[in-house]
Structures are given as C-alpha cells and as structure tokens.
Design brief:
With about 100 residues, the chain is an alpha+beta fold. The protein contains three helices and five strands.
Length: about 100
Amino acid sequence: PELAAGEGRACTELMRAMQGRVAIKTGAEAVFVAIIPEKKLGVALKIEDGNARASEAALVAILTRLGVLDAAHPMAQKRLPAPQINCRGTRTGELRLAAGFM
C-alpha cells in the first residue's frame, strides 16, 4: 500500500484497513480506481468539483456497500461525512453522502 500514494493518503490507509483485499489508487482531481479481485469487480470514481473530501467519503461508502470495508474501521470513519470546521473552529457546513450511498 505504501507505494501507491504514501503515508497518510486515503488509498494507502484504506488498503491497509482491508488487509490487501482491495487495490486502490487515487489520481488527480478526485479520481479513484479500486480493484476487488475476490468479487471480480472494478470501481472508477470521479467527483466533478475535484474535492478529495467528497471522493474519499464516496469511495468509503461504495467499498462498505460492496462488503469489503467495515464502516466502523478508524480509517473508514476518518473519511465518512462529518461537520466542516474552519480554522477559527466555527462549523461552516457538513459533508453528506447522497441518498443511497450507505
């Protein structure tokens, strides 16, 4: 996993969380691809605005729904929807998944 993107990156942490059962690679502008050999599936994801927070949350939701990632795992929780807090500590909004993602 470390060679895919490096420490602290979503693809590295999520591959570790799934113990190598899934290969994930991020690309530019919120693109992700995932290969799930045991299910003979591939996933391609693109978030239009290029926001990594949104693409990471969507990818976690997809992998959870496919049954290869436990939503309770700390690396999944780190990327699921949460309040958005600015540098002053003020809640400015919330990142939410569209209906049907989870």
